[in-house]
Amino acid sequence: MECGHTQDTSRLEARNRWRRLKNTVAFAAAIKSSLAHDLLEDKLHVDPVKGNDSVATGAAAQASMPVKAKGRKGMEGLVVQQDRGYMSCFQDFYVACLKLPVVHFFIGVFLAPVALASIFTPLYLSDAKGLKLVESQEAGSSCDSSKIWSCLNVFLYSLSLSTTFGGSPISAISPFCLLVANLHTLMAQFLFVFLSGAVFARMSQPAHPIRCSKKAIIKNNDFGTSDDEDGRSKVFVIRLVLTGPPPCELVDAKIRLTFRIYVRLPSGSMFCSTQDLDLVRSEVAYLRYGLTVRHVINSKSPISGHTLDTLAQGDASFSLTIMGVERSSMQPIFHVEDYFICDGDVIWDGEYLDFVGVNDKGLRVLDHSKIDMLKPFKVAGVVTQAIARMEGEVARHKAEADLKEEKNHEPLSESDWKTSGVRIRKLWKTISGSK
């Protein structure tokens, strides 16, 4: 019995050692094969027989449901679904108010007391007998006062408590109405503190004394050399100016240009590739008046090899961000400008109109109204050059054809006549011998 038990134990240990060795070899082979693959396309997480249902479902959804909107509408129309509770949304209500547009923000500030008065008005109407007209109103009121006029007086009383005005045609006399009026006053004071903080925070937000051109251009690089083999490269150009009361100065300005394009992975899913582009001047210690942002599209640039059609197919876009400090107020500055290929924000082979001129007094003038203007004759010049090249090619082919035709009709020289006569005699001898 002991011998049989020992044999079973040794077999079990040998089987376990074999399993561990087999798993180790399989794991090493899997790690070796996954080194050449991207983490997004890792094959270790996909069963070769069953497959990963989540990955397959996601890829099929991306492939079968193309994005309808592209460009700015596609970026701004992105729906973000957050799994947050009502308490978190209530806590973020203050931040959401600060992010509203200026017009909507001030409309909300003026409508907030009206909304608070509308909430407490039904409570006062539930105990209408607890309210009475003041003595001045009692003397001038008629006996046939309508119900609408009574409701209006109650609403004006509630609104006077919301705005802390104090003047109203009626007053509270019952304990219930007095309790509601005190709670209403406390809520009005809390609303006043909330609105005061919101207005102060909104007015102290960073200013936007930066204006960028609405159109970006891609043109031939007229400055410097290129690393390309043909010695030619293009440059991505955006113009920006500083606005506001002079002097317009920015300290420690940092400029970033980001390139985004959608690519399709081998699995069929879509991936948004985001890369920072190298700029000629990415940091400026002291910026005055404005700057021309330039990115050289050489062999190291992510835009190299792309055309306007390939960029449009990938829904490419560019984001320009400027950060700095305004010198006079030492207030932080942040500005962002987006350029979408599908919206026509990038002009290929375009040229900006010069917005720096000289006035009658001999002073240089920086005209901000011309920051978005392009040279109209740029496209016409390109078309004219193309037509001239085509006409030159047609003329060259025609000249070559005429030259060949002249050679065919050219009379033979004396040596050519002798050579042709010898060939004719040899041909007749061959024909006669064959007969």
From TrEMBL:
TM region positions: 102-125, 172-201
Domain of life of the source: Eukaryota
Keywords: Ion channel, Ion transport, Membrane, Potassium, Potassium transport, Transmembrane, Transmembrane helix, Transport, Voltage-gated channel
Subcellular location: Membrane
InterPro entries linked: Ig_E-set (IPR014756), K_chnl_inward-rec_Kir (IPR016449), K_chnl_inward-rec_Kir_cyto (IPR013518)
Gene Ontology terms: biological process: potassium ion import across plasma membrane; regulation of monoatomic ion transmembrane transport
Membrane topology: Multi-pass membrane protein
Entry GO terms, CC: monoatomic ion channel complex; plasma membrane
UniProt key word Ion transport: yes
Entry-linked SUPFAM superfamilies: E set domains
GO molecular function: inward rectifier potassium channel activity
Family: Belongs to the inward rectifier-type potassium channel (TC 1.A.2.1) family.
Name of the protein this chain belongs to: Inward rectifier potassium channel C-terminal domain-containing protein
Organism whose genome encodes this protein: Selaginella moellendorffii (Spikemoss)
